[in-house]
Amino acid sequence: MQVADNKVVLIHYTLTNAAGEVLDSSAGGEPLAYLHGKGNIVPGLENALTGKQVGDKQQVEVSPEEGYGQPNEELIQEVERNLFDGIDNIEIGMQFMAQTPWGEQPVVVTALTDETVTVDGNHPLAGDVLNFDVEVVEVRDASEEELEHGHAHGAGGHHH
Fold first, then answer.
1. Which end of the chain is more exposed for a tag (fewer CB within 10 A), N or C?
2. DSSP per-residue string spanning 29-90
3. Residue percentage of the chain with pLDDT more than 70
4. CATH number, domain 73-120
């Protein structure tokens, strides 16, 4: 069976950055399960896996445009420090959930002054080339429920 839209695909992967540092990996754990064609994984990896079958291994280089996009300046904001009332030690690198017009979004503290905190809402890997070492371990038909929900369930997938 080939990887195609509406198939549940299980992959083992290792993600490295341009410097060769491992950022994420399924090695030693459950494979990642995703529903193909639904945007569950970055587009560059999803496109590269189309038509593959169990046992296929490949290395995929994903450009920022096909990955997490380029950093968006509008997602970097300087806010009043008093918005962080009740948090005594704000440090660079801390993550918070920010309320935005389109819902909650994770932000990372990137700079501090006595009066302000600069937060960045870009994905941590925005602007980066992503290198995936990937192996297809299973391909199966998606269930009605998986198609309805738009993601894989069960081992390696989404749990409700």
1. C
2. SPPEEEETTTTSS-HHHHHHHTT-BTT-EEEEEE-GGGTT-S--GGGEEEEEGGGGTT----
3. 99
4. 2.40.10.330
